[in-house]
Amino acid sequence: MRITTILITIIVAATMLLSGCGGGSASSTASATEPPELKGLTYESTMELKRADQFSVYQYKGGYSLIIIKDHQSFLLVPEGAEVPDSLPEDITVLHKPAKRIYLAATATMAMFCSMGALDNVRMSSIKEEDWTFDEPKEACDLAIESTMIDHTPEVQEMIEEIDIPVLVDRSSYESDPMGRAEWIKLYGVLTGHEKEATEFFDKQLDSIKKLDDFENTGTTVAFFYFNTEGKVVVRSSTDYVPKMIDIAGGVYAFKDLDSDSDKSTADMSVETFYDTAKNADIIVYNSSIDGSVKSMADLIAKDPIMKKMKAVQTGNCWITGSSMYQRTDIVAEMILDFHKLITEDNPSDLKYITKLN
Length: 358
Fold this sequence. Notes:
The protein is α/β, with parallel strands linked by helices. The protein contains twelve helices and 17 strands. About 25% of the residues lie in helices and about 20% in strands. The strands form four sheets. Strands 11, 12, 13, 14, 15, 16 and 17 form a seven-stranded mixed beta sheet that branches. Helix 1 (about 105-115) links the parallel strand 7 (about 100-105) and strand 8 (about 120-125). Helix 5 runs antiparallel to helix 6 and helix 7 (about 240-250) packs across helix 12. It is elongated. The protein starts with a strand and ends with a strand. Mean pLDDT is about 85; it is low at about 1-30 and about 130-135.
């Protein structure tokens, strides 16, 4: 166990949603629905989560909170000035709340802190890797929160843990429900003492798309993709949150039958395979947040001449996303509404995060 105040380090690239899992499992981290029994603490309630399923928060008498990152990690948040319970399981990391010394490097999570009014809890932003000595973070921080990309560089996690800084792995990228990703703001609300603000913000976002709950699907097909540096087409698997956004918005993802064979939420394919499936898609949305080289219809066609044969290219129904597609998890609902307008309106002109290719 480690007793800490909190500083949060989240190192997330735009491809955070494509990475594998991180962190190690332990006995108290099972995704149980029953509240864990902790010696010396009295259970009071469980945080209501409407869409997220990758974390749970249990409240105990006296202001204690237990955060469980599904099947991976557990953190007990101890109120300022309160005693740490005896005989806690060894796999539970003890943190003191609220988080007041936060090192925040992830744009997506920074947006959440802005949305719930917790910017005052952020002490530092990222610095260049070559300028980061381990004496500095050791003095300034007590907890590092990493994305699952830490799995690709395990030596970094080892170096952090060697100086007694615990690592919490953010698994919001594993939420298949797009609004589940947004609901992670509640976890950060617990860490910073902004639970009320976080819940109010999330509920407002959820209410903004409530009108789509009973919306009948239009059957309009949408191809969401980009070209990688090898010239292959990268699409999302059918279980990913992007196809779910399209479904909520009233459309049909062109690759709705594509299931990934691994933990990855994407799949690479040849241009020919992509064309065979998506040639008759009504709408093309190019993922410019990953590949920003496509800014016009000519740029899209230059990727491969076969694009000229696509129905959406011929009808001029081609669009690109902005960087907010991945950097702003606080505007997921607004992205869904953009998709809804794209699917249901002719030449929508008031889209916030999607732009038409000309």
